[in-house]
Amino acid sequence: MPDSSSEPQATPLSRRGLERLDLLLLSAEALDLNGGEAMVWMSEQMGFSALFPNRVELWKRRCHNPLRRATRRGQLKPAETDALMRILCALADRLYPLLRALLASNEPEAVRQRRWELFEGRLAELVRERMNPRRVGVQTLLDPRRGARQRRQLIQSLALGAGTGGYERLRASLHDPAV
Amino acid sequence: MKQTLRYDQVSCRLQVEGLPDLSSGQAQDALGIITGWTLRWPGRPELEGRREHLLSLMAVVLPYARLLISGVGRPVGGADTPVSIAPRPEGGHRLQLRSSQPDTPPLELELDDAELADLVRVLDELRLDPRLQVKLDLPEPRPLQPREVLERMPLGRRLAAPVGGALALALAATLGALLPEPAPQRQTTGARETPSAPGSAAPPSSQQPATAPQPSGPPR
After folding, report:
1. Which among A145, B16, B41, B48 could bridge B37 via Cys, Cβ 3.0 to 4.6 Å?
2. Which tops the pLDDT comparison, B218 or B185?
3. What is the CATH number of the domain that holds B72?
């Protein structure tokens, strides 16, 4: 398991950071139909079984996202959020060809549009299933026009945070102050 | 003896050449002295340079990517640096490379988000390659300052809440000032309340009707 205790910021992730982290994980799930399974498998492969012994524990950590239907109170330990970020970066690395295809501008417009429709449709399905529809953040994300920028931002963050090199960038970004 | 490190992505290939620094006890397969590098993009001019140019490229592109993850599209590097990158208003990114040769105009490359992600990946691969044993001195990614987070919002949206609140307060204060003051109540001699004697069981309200008389209406 990567040692996260030696890293510079052992501060707990803010609610806003947890919200973004869970939405990024949800976007990875939207890109991969077996994303939920892949997450559990990745957690075991990366040696996080002590932190997340089973899928329920993994799911409980993700439920600290304040936008969830059944949100959990309290803060996650830095080791837990770092592990979730490492899993996310590994998932993004695996999904990089898909992320790249969504961001590329040199393909026919119809192909690009179809790709975005597929991703956005699947993301909307997952968001409606798991998030609290009364929250403004959820309504904005689901809005075809107002949420477009945020959905693109999620894909771009995954592409730039993919792999081992992206972990530090993504981690710093998730620790941004909430204003 | 000569070492070549190569990193490939869909849109670019980075190749770094150099030698191991045997005086520092580096292994034969290590690269401790960079002698040159090339960055190839299909359909675009090939970039090449010395060690300093590669380090400048990394010192500009990686912090720019860090800002983009937080949704802050801000130029990194300026006219006085060998490399600079900035977002383009029409979308994408503009990478400028300035030659150390005099009278040579800067080379401009326009990258879309996918090409930028490819460039970031090859630079990450190089940075994290254990064979590269060169001190890079790259800034460590840090969380943004609250001011930087605020600045990513357009000024109109940033000011909307405080200006709206101030306007609502001013409107409420104006309406409050326009309301007429209530006239002072006249005291009528007949309805003056007399204090009840101590021990008296009669409540003060018994001297006045508890409810106002209702106007008689037609029977329902």
Report:
1. B16
2. B185
3. 2.30.31
